[in-house]
Input
Amino acid sequence: MTWRAAVLEAARQETPSARTLVLRVPDWPGHLSGQHVDVRLTAPDGYSAQRSYSIASAWQDGGTVELTVQRVEDGEVSSYLTDDLQVGQPLELRGPVGGWFVWRNAPPPVLLVAGGSGVVPLMAMIRARGDVRGRQPFRLIYSVRTPQDALYVNELARRVRDDPGLDVRFVYTRKAPDGWPDPPGRLTVATINTYGWPPDFAPDVFVCGPTSFVEAAADILVALGHDPKKIRTERFGGTS
Output
């Protein structure tokens, strides 16, 4: 893989601490939903730093790549990408990376389990399914601290409204919306058992989020009888 020049074409503020970057990459080879890229920033004095970010956009979209970046406390790269990078400014990308944690328009139902910004590659899968008008039923269980921390809320609501094959369930760990039926709390066996697919449906399962979240969710899925070979995980540092 080689480093490619990219330019910020547009940006959207998703939450107070998360921003979607629409990057123009003229020689982009295309990607699969679930893959990620390495981003490199280089200062005038030659100092460089790089981080990996999941791709939020589906498949290949006319030479553009979307990344949704969550600001990390004291994160030199994420802070620059969320607060300082301006339209027209360059950065470098390397990728796409990964061939295991990807959705390939396969026929089984799909269960997506996200913790915090772990929803980004799963959103790429939802978007890809929508682009190809896939008929596989999708269910997303999305754990966030508060309603204000949830990414893609309006788009998810629109997609659920327009697509009977897509279902989304939010789990709030710190503060729930007024009138929410469940008290705030972590993902539990009951949550996945109620809102996920039964094991005998043999769903493809994708889990993404902080390491502790991914390990807990994977353990619950296995305890409920899901085939470990059909559970794919992607994890990152930090907290959900």
In short: DSSP finds five helices and eleven strands in the chain. Residues 119-131 form the longest helix (13 residues). The chain has two domains: 3-97, 110-236.
